[in-house]
């Protein structure tokens, strides 16, 4: 499974607009190459026609070409343009970024349990009378998501898988950040006394007391 997350970070509305334009460009490329892409989750900006963040899931049928497509949108990217939102603004450089996630679908499926459940809310008779919604749980971590946005259970399973993969990646990044913080904390916690070994001079000669 290959996911691509686009984000404007803490950037202004112009950066959100850049994410929206990037999304349109990706969808156009996917149509040209007959690659199916779904928007798993998205957070729209408050003022522009753009997005603060978008999570995309690509069809896994042609993993090589899909991965190549996603990698073209990974990293920090720059949109140079006079602001369509604030025409008199002097700034013309707007940054956004992309991050690709990849997981073996069979391995991921072995670690996930699925439970069909009845969809709720609006959507017509079909949605309300069939068990098309899906609750997916990652057994190892206990991460659980519920998806009912699609009419078919198969489609909801696919989106649920994508959401769990995203949450696993977020947890992995959080753990890595905690490790970095812990290493830096060691610098702050360094004791000025009670040294167990002592070295002196440019030759770094150990002094034994």
The low-confidence runs, each spanning 5 or more residues with pLDDT under 50, are 123-128
Going by CATH, the architecture of the largest domain would be 2-Layer Sandwich
How many β-strand stretches?
10
Taken from the alpha-carbon principal axes, the silhouette is extended
Please tell me how large the radius of gyration is.
24 Å
Question: Which structural class matches the secondary elements?
Answer: alpha+beta
Count structural domains. Answer: 2
Output the number of helix runs: 5
Salient structural properties:
209 residues, alpha+beta, Alpha-Beta Plaits, Double Stranded RNA Binding Domain, 2 domains, five-stranded antiparallel beta sheet, three-stranded antiparallel beta sheet, 5 helices, 10 strands, extended
Describe this structure in words.
- With 209 residues, the chain is of the alpha+beta class.
- It has 2 domains: 2-102, Alpha-Beta Plaits; 106-179, Double Stranded RNA Binding Domain, CATH 3.30.160.20.
- Helix content is 37%, strand content 29%.
- The chain contains 5 helices and 10 strands.
- The protein has helices at 13-32, 63-71, 105-110, 124-129, 153-188, and strands spanning 2-7, 37-44, 51-58, 75-80, 93-102, 112-117, 133-138, 144-147, 198-200, 205-207.
- The radius of gyration is 24 Å and the shape is extended.
């Amino acid at each position: 499974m290959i996911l691509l997350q686009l984000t404007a970070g803490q950037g202004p509305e112009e950066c959100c607009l850049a994410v929206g334009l990037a999304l349109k460009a990706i969808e156009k490329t996917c149509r040209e190459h007959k690659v199916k892409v779904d928007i798993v989750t998205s957070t729209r900006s408050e003022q522009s026609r753009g997005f603060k963040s978008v999570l995309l899931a690509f069809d896994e049928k042609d993993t090589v070409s899909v991965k190549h497509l996603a990698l073209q949108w990974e990293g920090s990217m720059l949109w140079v343009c006079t602001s369509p939102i604030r025409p008199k603004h002097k700034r013309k450089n707007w940054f956004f970024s992309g991050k690709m996630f990849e997981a073996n679908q069979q391995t991921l499926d072995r670690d996930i349990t699925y439970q069909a459940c009845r969809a709720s809310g609006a959507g017509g008779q079909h949605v309300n009378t069939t068990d098309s919604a899906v609750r997916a749980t990652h057994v190892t971590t206990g991460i659980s998501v519920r998806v009912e946005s699609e009419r078919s259970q198969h489609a909801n399973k696919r989106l649920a898988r994508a959401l769990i993969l995203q949450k696993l990646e977020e947890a992995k990044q959080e753990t890595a950040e905690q490790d970095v913080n812990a290493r830096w904390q060691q610098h702050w916690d360094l004791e000025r006394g009670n040294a167990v070994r002592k070295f002196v001079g440019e030759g770094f000669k150990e002094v034994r007391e």
